[in-house]
Amino acid sequence: MRASCPSRSTSIFKTLSATLALLLAALAPMQALAAAAACTAQSSPHRAALVQLFTSEGCSDCPPADQRLNTLGNAPMASNSGQQVIPLALHVNYWDNLGWRDPFAQPEFGDLQSWMVDVTGGHVVYTPHFFVNGTPYLDWRSKLDVVFGQTFSQNAPASVQLQVQALGNNQLSVHTVVSAIKTAKPTEPLQLRLAVTEGNLVSHVQAGENGGVTLNHAHVTRVLSPPIALSDQGASIQTTLSLPPATGKIVRVVAYVQNSKTAEVLQAVTTADCAR
Description:
34% strand, four-stranded antiparallel beta sheet, alpha+beta, six-stranded antiparallel beta sheet, globular
């Protein structure tokens, strides 16, 4: 009997399969490095614009402001571009009594807003409420782009580096290095804040002022660390952040240095998208 020989097409298929396996094995370390690189960040020599929006799903005036914030910071600029807008949506819970409980609201965000209003000379807490680098802006529809341009032209008074690693069990390890701090009054107290944001969030509001409306959110703050005291010498800080139950697979981590007496933000930085 003659031994059967594999067909030419079968041989080619086996060769291609072996080649593909080798390519995938070679690409795996490169993909891991790319994922790791996406979760590191270095602030620019120029000042970033940290945009904090205090908002609520229970507030009928908030959706237009939410939509404006959604358009910001969707593609973080290269660190050497000198132009980076870093949005944070902070959902407050003091409108929950109007019939709809905001699922992203945290009482601490309302406390933070009250503090910022107080130290910046304000008297009323309201939503939607924009702050850029700690300064409140009522006329956000026309003023934000102008403020961004002015901010980007300034040299940053501090440098911030971030390195983020997923630990599993909805935890992130965050290493932050703050250096090169230059302030007009070195004796004024400084603090570091870390935030974790999540995007592509959708709410179908069933009641309250926005009842029947579907809201799309980006840059929603899911975690905000307590303030970490800094000296004007800077610091190297290792922190573990616990995330709420996952609604998505991607988060961003933000770090910012703030004057704890005036609320002024000296510098901020954000990672690109990181896996949980």
